[in-house]
Design goal:
Elements: H1 28-34, H2 36-53, H3 55-58, H4 89-100
Helix pairs in contact: 1-2, 2-4
């Protein structure tokens, strides 16, 4: 019949697709130890947690105190230099890491 939306009957049973989980190889934690990028990421993450945990030891002074000349380059005391207000960038980054984590 023209314009009809009736389905035609078939004699074959419909096949059902079975969803399979692809083999992803080693677990994610194992990949962190076996690839160079994973190991580097793991080391950086652990370093960030260590710095955040030891923030009072690493940066013992007020992170917002003016401690040097404004916009000075990195030195032994201020390893990341200072900003335009003379605040140590390393101390501020350390304080922010501790409050973030």
């Amino acid at each position: 019949m023209p314009g009809s939306t009736r389905a035609f009957a078939t004699t074959e049973a419909p096949t059902r697709a079975v969803a399979r989980r692809p083999n992803r190889g080693p677990g994610r934690l194992t990949a962190a130890f076996t690839t160079a990028g994973g190991a580097a990421g793991l080391v950086l993450t652990l370093a960030l947690f260590a710095i955040a945990g030891l923030a009072d030891v690493v940066a013992p002074t007020d992170p917002f105190a003016s401690v040097g000349r404004p916009l000075s380059s990195p030195s032994r005391l201020h390893t990341l230099g200072t900003d335009d207000l003379g605040q140590s960038d390393r101390w501020r980054v350390t304080a922010r890491a501790a409050s973030t984590i």
